[in-house]
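dumping this here so i dont lose it
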């Protein structure tokens, strides 16, 4: 994937209508490649659950996400994978500030936006957009598709009604739908068509970062391939940075430059995509790879499946010679560098797990 970025106040490849270049004011220009598009530092989320009656009410703390460190470079695609309930979507929602983190920092193009108020955050919201898994509930059923796609322009005060409408039709065409679809409604479309509309709505503001939360999980195989190809084309055209959240490892392998693996709310391994698929070190990563369907029945018989409790107990133990960089401080499993851009949650030999 290509590196580099564009001015915060203008488009990368230019939307068909040219609205943003003329109408947008936002964060200052950042030199290409100077800072990551998105960075999460020590991000965590705790939920407080109440149970019992009025007199015996109990509050328990659920730690859904803990100590997440991720870097999404400009023009890169980072896959975030794990089973349902591992914390992937919670991490994505925190990166969007749709869910407030309990601890940690969120940096967009080098600026810490973790504590920004609504007014100060608004220009940065334009820089990070999202495509959700359920395209039907994400699209307003009372709006025409042109109104749906143009809504972000209206919210940010870009252009007038006529220019926003033209921009929406241009973007529908850009994602593979005829301009006549602008007068239709979401319920008239197939799942794949609705997801194309969701992508058009997310990208009409020319963001720096797209967070795609399971965007293909509800689609047929052929439609899934079309959406992946569309994302690849738009990413190359716009030099877009994508955080791709998924449990479908085959899709992740075809799309992403790097992969981060989440288990029980923590990152347990991160590496370039092929390194994850060919030389995974963490037991949970290997379990995910074992779960990928295979055609060869002999390979099926050789695969072993382990429960989560067993995986949680099986912490990798590294010798100091295997760690290729500074050993992180602390006790217990922590992400350690074991090769070029490869980190795994492990303990040092002689430490208690």
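and the seq i came up w/
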């Amino acid at each position: 994937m290509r590196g580099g970025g564009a001015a915060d106040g203008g488009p990368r490849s230019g939307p068909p209508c040219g609205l943003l270049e003329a109408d947008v004011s936002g964060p200052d220009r950042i030199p290409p490649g100077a800072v990551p598009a998105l960075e999460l530092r020590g991000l965590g989320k705790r939920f407080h659950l109440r149970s019992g009656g009025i007199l015996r009410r109990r509050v328990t703390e659920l730690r859904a996400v803990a100590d997440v460190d991720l870097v999404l470079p400009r023009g890169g695609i980072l896959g975030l994978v794990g089973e349902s309930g591992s914390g992937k979507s919670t991490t994505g929602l925190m990166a969007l500030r749709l869910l407030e983190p309990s601890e940690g920092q969120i940096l967009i193009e080098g600026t810490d936006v973790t504590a920004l108020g609504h007014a100060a955050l608004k220009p940065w919201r334009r820089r990070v957009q999202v495509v959700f898994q359920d395209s039907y509930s994400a699209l307003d059923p009372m709006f025409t598709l042109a109104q749906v796609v143009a809504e972000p322009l209206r919210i940010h005060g870009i252009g007038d009604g006529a220019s926003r409408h033209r921009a929406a039709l241009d973007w529908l065409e850009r994602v593979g739908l005829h301009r006549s679809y602008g007068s239709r409604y979401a319920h008239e479309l197939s799942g794949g068509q609705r997801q194309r509309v969701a992508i058009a709505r997310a990208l009409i503001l020319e963001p720096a970062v797209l967070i795609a939360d399971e965007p293909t999980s509800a689609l047929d195989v052929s439609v899934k391939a079309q959406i992946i190809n569309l994302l690849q084309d738009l990413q190359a055209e716009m030099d877009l940075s994508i955080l791709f959240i998924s449990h479908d490892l085959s899709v992740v392998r075809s799309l992403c430059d790097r992969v981060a693996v989440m288990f029980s709310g923590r990152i347990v391994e991160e590496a370039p995509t092929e390194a994850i698929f060919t030389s995974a070190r963490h037991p949970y990563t290997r379990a995910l790879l074992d779960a990928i369907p295979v055609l060869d029945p002999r390979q099926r018989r050789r695969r072993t499946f382990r429960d989560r409790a067993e995986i949680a107990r099986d912490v990798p133990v590294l010798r100091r010679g295997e760690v290729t960089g500074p050993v992180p401080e602390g006790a217990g499993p922590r992400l350690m560098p074991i090769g070029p851009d490869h980190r795994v949650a492990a303990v040092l030999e002689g430490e208690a797990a």
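The longest helix spans residues 221-238.
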